[in-house]
Amino acid sequence: MQIIKKVLNSSVVLVEDERGVERVLLGKGIGFGAKPGGVVDEGATDRVFVALDDADQRNLVELLAQIPGEFVELTREIVRDAVAAGLDLDPHIYLTLTDHLHFAVERHRRGLVVVNRLAWELRTVYPDEYAVGQRGVELLRTRMRVEVPDEEAANIAFHLANAANGRAGADTMHVVRLIAAATTIVTNTTGIVFSDDLHSSRFLVHLQFFAERVFAGRMLDTDDGFLFESMGQRHPRALSTAERVRALVRAQHDIEVSDEEVAYLALHIARAVPG
Length: 275
Description:
Radius of gyration: 22 Å
Number of helices: 11
Strand content: 5-15%
Shape: elongated
Structural class: alpha+beta
Largest sheet: 4 strands, antiparallel
Distance between the termini: 67 Å
Helix content: 55-70%
Number of strands: 4
């Protein structure tokens, strides 16, 4: 049995079960006419429960009380689209994305322009999330009657990727920033400029998996050193470039990248930069 503790808006209420466990309950119109102490009807099937695990999430719940319910419904549509596209998302996406969409609309209405400097990396590395983000932008424009810029698709994609990576133990911002830094290192060292071609996309996909393994603590580390030594002999410039990425990770995140990861990174650098 779920007892209503607080009505946040027309689509969100804070509930508590018989064990005293609090959760956020989202459902279209669930807040209309609801009052603290009321019992939630358990017959509805289109509702979403979100657990409250820490203080930050509780603070976010309080923010929802200041956000119109239509933003919650917009988030639910975007999440349904993402799930249909095969994404496995942490339920807290309902809180973070709702807050973001509301802020994006308010920011646009005030004429504030914020450039997402990682938009290209997000679009390239997370194409499924970006496609959902593009459809989300169209929903924003239609439902909220605001002409948010196309770039907003990258911001939505970021939240979706972060929710998906949350399942895998990685942090999207760390991942995307490492990808951006690594491509800059490769460009500065080798002269190659990354674009939307097949070779660039293939390299960025490897960087994505590399970064996710680094931050999730699942690095490759089973090789006996043969590949690392071989890359040093055959592709010294590529290995030297990969070593610079290792040094960056060590300096910025205090994480030691394994020789095997460096060797595979060098291998992909060598493929991207023939000769």
